[in-house]
Amino acid sequence: MLENLRPQFLEKVTTILETMFFLIVEPIEDPIRGGEMEKGAEVQDSDASFVKGTIGLQGKKKGTIRLYLPQTLAQKMAEDFLGLEEDVIAQNQVLDMIGELINVIAGNLISCIGGQGEFTLTMPRAETSPAPPAGNKTAGEEMDLYFQAEEGWGKLEIRLGEG
After folding, report:
1. pTM above 0.90, yes or no
2. Which end of the chain is more exposed for a tag (fewer CB within 10 A), N or C?
3. What is the pLDDT of residues 41-94, one digit of tens each?
4. 89: which residues sit within 8 A by CB, 6+ positions away?
5. Complete domains list, the chain, with CATH
């Protein structure tokens, strides 16, 4: 089911990033597993510092949505979102922005997955993280979306299991 929704998910995520952060992104293949990236984009060093936003889904099916962004991209997005000058933003502001972003993304994606009221969202969490893991196989449905921005690439993980 999730794989059929990939075009809708990509459309929603790219629209959110462009609208909230004036950020233009292009979908790419998995840079962690060495997938060929569109337009010759270069993969950032996998040892780079990332931030991760996580939100849980509860309802008929339980699940998790995670967003991984390189620290440099997340900081630029937070600066643009808050209208602050470069290097003025604090890490807690970056993490707050990631929490808000994963909440907005999840709210938009669940409208594609199920009908109104089928899911509730947990409180978003945001933290620093190593590079995102390569796609892990789970018992339920899963999808990984990768996108490239000028400042680096990001990963959105969607995991759904039985409730």
Report:
1. no
2. N
3. 344 445 569 999 999 999 888 999 999 999 999 999 999 999 988 778 999 999
4. 75, 78, 79, 82
5. 3-162 (3.40.1550.10)
